[in-house]
Amino acid sequence: EKGGHDYFMLKEIAEQPRAVADTLLGRIDGSGSLRLDEVRIPPHELREVDKVVIVACGTAFHSGMIAKYAIEHWTRIPCETELASEFRYRDPILDQRTLVVAISQSGETMDTLMALRHAREQGAKVLAICNTNGSTIPRESDAVLYTHAGPEVAVASTKAFLTQLVACYLVALYLGQIRGTKWGDEIRTVIRQLSEISGAVEQVLGTMEPVRELARSLAGHDTVLFLGRHVGYPVALEGALKLKELAYMHAEGFAAGELKHGPIALIEDGLPVVVVVPSPRGRSLLHDKVVSNIQEIRARGARTVVIAEEGDEAVVPYADHLIRIPITPTLLQPLVSTVPLQVFACELATARGNDVDQPRNLAKSVTVE
Ligand code: M6R
């Protein structure tokens, strides 16, 4: 049942290209436009949405953080992403024109469920992004967009995360498409690029041996830091979460721009720091700033593990270890940059003798608050 793999997690990592393709299937029509009739919120209501609030926990929260960048860019609708467990215990401002997006692999996470109930009580519309047909969260929502990752057994979420990202991009691009923004041409181009992205995920999976080797060499360390910026920031958080839950190591993700506001004090000789580098194309200013960050931490002794696009030569002098990822549109980069971090955490956990599929103290679905 593990399809020849030692762990479900490895099987699920390997299934990601197909999971991504399946989540896109039937949702892009012949003319390259999105068809999301299954989202039963009528277009005229979606056109009136003036605020999007995303609620989720754990890994699903990280996909929601990335969604914020995509939604605000392509739709110009203000969007906030909030931990479900925080959202329901404050006094959020919601009304009929707020679209709440609840993201959950299992569809049973109590914190997320309570947040969506709270949102509906205030009159907001709730769209669920969920991987489990007929589970409680989609049943209690106004609409649902299913991710087609297939069953995810390992406690650490991998393929569900990538398909949540795809679903979030679909929602962002669809809202952009029906509302018509100045990014119309870009939206059409990105829909086409998204339809081809599973090949890029496959490509990364084919180059993971050096990542495994590196992970094994770090098994004796206590701490690993992760840095990212823009959509690479939630990816850094996700890399750190995977390492905490699987390897039981102290792992922290930071926004690279925050380094000088505190975290740089943690850098000491030999400390492994994984850095997710933005594309040198597009928002190239950010790329250059992150390269400076790598330079700064390396000068203070960090052992740098750099995840950068193919052809990005600027990082080479400062990378103790260089992990290449395919060139993708800026906002879609998390679909490829997350994969090495999953492999890294899985291999490190194995090297430390941990049970990868059933990490201590954790459950696959958290049905209590
Ligand atoms: O089923 P959900 O997506 O609602 O679960 C949310 C989190 O509990 C989940 O993502 C958790 O953080 C994973 N173990 C992360 O790998």
Derived structural class:
alpha/beta
Gyration radius over CA? 20 Å
Uncertain residue segments:
none
Strand content: 15-25%
Discrete helix count: 14
Helix percentage range = 40-55%
Helix and strand pattern: HHHEHEHEHEHEHHHHEHEEHEEH
Number of strands: 10
Keywords:
single chain; 369 residues; alpha/beta; five-stranded parallel sheet; binds 5-amino-5-deoxy-1-O-phosphono-D-mannitol
Describe this structure in words.
It is a single chain. The chain has 369 residues and is α/β, with parallel strands linked by helices. It contains 14 helices and ten strands. The strands form two sheets. The protein has a five-stranded parallel β-sheet with strand order 2-1-3-4-5, sandwiched between helices. A five-stranded parallel β-sheet has the order 7-6-8-9-10, sandwiched between helices. Helix 12 (232-247) links the parallel strand 6 (223-228) and strand 7 (250-255). The longest helix has 21 residues, at 159-179. The model has no long low-confidence stretch (mean pLDDT 95). It binds 5-amino-5-deoxy-1-O-phosphono-D-mannitol.
Q: How is this fold's topology laid out?
A:
Blueprint: H1 8-14, H2 16-24, H3 43-48, E1 51-56, H4 58-75, E2 79-83, H5 84-87, E3 98-104, H6 110-121, E4 125-130, H7 136-139, E5 143-146, H8 159-179, H9 184-195, H10 197-205, H11 209-217, E6 223-228, H12 232-247, E7 250-255, E8 272-276, H13 284-299, E9 303-309, E10 321-325, H14 334-351
Parallel strand pairs: 1-2, 1-3, 3-4, 4-5, 6-7, 6-8, 8-9, 9-10
